[in-house]
Write a structure and sequence with these properties.
By secondary structure, the protein is an alpha/beta fold. The protein has one domain: Vaccinia Virus protein VP39 (Rossmann fold), CATH 3.40.50. The chain binds S-adenosylmethionine.
């Protein structure tokens, strides 16, 4: 079996039962998701893709704020997509795919998106830089990439950081300590970046906008 298929099977195993209480439990530690959504400047008719959309929690919240946006979600886990389909009830087009290599025309009939969201997914995607590169390939001119994930916990006590990371590892989650630097590098010369750390480094948030006409 390929590495991608293995990873998809692992994600299905992780979420087969967890998805049933995912939204309520993650509310308390996937911090910054609402900050990301509140900072999205979505116009009516904009195409919004969440890569690794999980249960569809974020897409449902985006829909509430921007009812005229066109919503799309992909995830490698069929299990998570069962929950997302139930929650979104046809309000978003959803598909099973790998974040690191996907064909949006084939999946959704769209070549590019005005907004692409990564929310607490890069910490679960082994080739997370590959996933960011793939997203940039499908971002429309003038489009924005929105990212939130675990930060380096740099301004939190050491015991908290160690405990958090040990616990996250049990769920196959690895905070990407170089995520902020990777976004910075991606923005150099080609895009405008607005990034910050949230909650004393618990999370990192970034918004990268590609110039129009490129
Ligand atoms: C912690 S959940 C985050 C879900 C959602 N974005 C949120 O903020 O609630 C991580 C998600 O990433 C998905 N995922 C992991 N690796 C992936 C990959 N290579 N391609 C697509 N989805 C992936 C998992 O199946 C899971 O749904």
């Amino acid at each position: 079996m390929s590495e991608v298929a293995d990873h998809g099977r692992l994600m299905d195993d992780v979420y087969r039962y967890q998805r049933l209480f995912y939204d309520i439990s993650r509310k308390y530690y996937l911090l910054g998701r609402d900050h990301l959504i509140a900072n999205m400047q979505v116009q009516p008719g904009d195409r919004v893709l969440e890569v690794a959309c999980g249960t569809g929690r974020n897409l449902a919240a985006i829909r509430k704020r921007h009812p005229r946006a066109l919503l799309f979600g992909l995830d490698i886990s069929d299990q998570m997509l069962i929950s997302a389909r139930r929650k979104l009830d046809g309000a978003a087009r959803l598909a099973q795919a790998d974040a690191c290599s996907f064909d949006p025309e084939a999946l959704f009939g769209e070549a590019q998106f005005d907004h692409i969201v990564f929310s607490y997914s890069l910490s679960m995607i082994p080739d997370w830089q590959g996933a960011l590169d793939e997203a940039m390939r499908h971002l429309a001119p003038g489009g924005t990439l929105h990212v939130v994930d675990f930060g380096d916990q740099g301004r939190l006590p050491d015991w908290f950081k160690r405990g958090l990371r040990g616990w996250l590892a049990r769920f196959h989650v690895t905070p990407r300590d170089t995520l902020g630097a990777a976004l910075q590098e991606m923005s150099e010369g080609t895009a405008a970046l607005s990034a910050c750390s949230l909650y004393r480094g618990y999370a990192v948030y970034g918004r990268l906008t590609r110039p129009s006409g490129r």
